[in-house]
């Protein structure tokens, strides 16, 4: 068994994007695909490593790209600018996520009828928006994602099952926003779960996160527990 990767170029509204596909080459059979939506800095090694970790679990990982081929933020200021264009135009965000979904479904390694998506930080908001838009996929998982509603999906039923893995003390997504999301998902008739981790803030899955003043701190137990919860969820929705 060897985890293989390849880069995949695709386009949206004239922007060239570059994803990374990861799969286990021990079988030629098509397997469920799991999109990985990156944090605010762009499609970095963290996202690619998560795609490879999903391949280790028997899925085909797809580290998608929202910003454009080769575009990676250099720090908080540039990251915020890159993310900001999508926070201001959630329709753009949703349509770019849909193109990523179409692209992963077209890969020969992927069973097009069994696709899910996971996302981290900004990427958590992205996969939630994909579900909110009514996209037909099996499930989405948000890790310490932003929870702000898009404002353009009211009245749409959510088809994907939803799992939200959240630090209860996250200053970027408050308990009030978490409750509002629960009400939003219920109104949209979603099959949803929210797991909140006590004593945990933003970016708890990122070993490099160590800025208590900014509200981003790695938390080993929450990282481990959330990955296990994701594994159980994917096993259920992609069976």
Molecular structure report:
With 239 residues, this protein is α/β, with parallel strands linked by helices. It has a single domain (3-237), classed as Alpha/Beta hydrolase fold, catalytic domain (Rossmann fold, 3-Layer(aba) Sandwich), CATH 3.40.50. It is built from 6 helices and 10 strands; from the N terminus they run E-E-E-H-E-H-H-E-H-E-E-H-E-E-E-H. It has helices at 45-56, 76-88, 90-105, 122-132, 175-187, 220-237; strands at residues 3-12, 15-24, 31-37, 60-63, 110-120, 139-143, 161-167, 192-197, 210-211, 216-217. Helix 5 links the parallel strand 7 and strand 8. Helix 3 (90-105) packs across helix 4. The protein is globular, with a radius of gyration of 16 Å. It starts with a strand and ends with a helix. The model has no long low-confidence stretch (mean pLDDT 97).
Question: What topology emerges from the helices and strands here?
Answer:
Elements: E1 3-12, E2 15-24, E3 31-37, H1 45-56, E4 60-63, H2 76-88, H3 90-105, E5 110-120, H4 122-132, E6 139-143, E7 161-167, H5 175-187, E8 192-197, E9 210-211, E10 216-217, H6 220-237
Parallel strand pairs: 3-4, 3-5, 5-6, 6-7, 7-8
Antiparallel strand pairs: 1-2, 2-4, 9-10
Helix pairs in contact: 3-4
Question: What's the gist of this structure?
Answer:
With about 240 residues, the protein is α/β, with parallel strands linked by helices. The chain contains six helices and ten strands.
Count of runs of 4 or more consecutive helical residues: 6
Strand fraction equals: 25-35%
Distance between the termini: 22 Å
Number of strands: 10
Strand order of the largest sheet: 1-2-4-3-5-6-7-8
* Helical proportion, percent range: 25-40%
Radius of gyration: 16 Å
How would you state the average pLDDT, rounded? 97
CATH class: Alpha Beta
Second CATH tier, the architecture: 3-Layer(aba) Sandwich
Major sheet characteristics: 8 strands, mixed
Helix-strand pattern, N to C? EEEHEHHEHEEHEEEH
Low-pLDDT regions: none
Give the CA-based shape.
globular
CATH level 4 superfamily: Alpha/Beta hydrolase fold, catalytic domain
Structural class: alpha/beta
- Provide the CATH topology: Rossmann fold
Question: How many separate structural domains?
Answer: 1
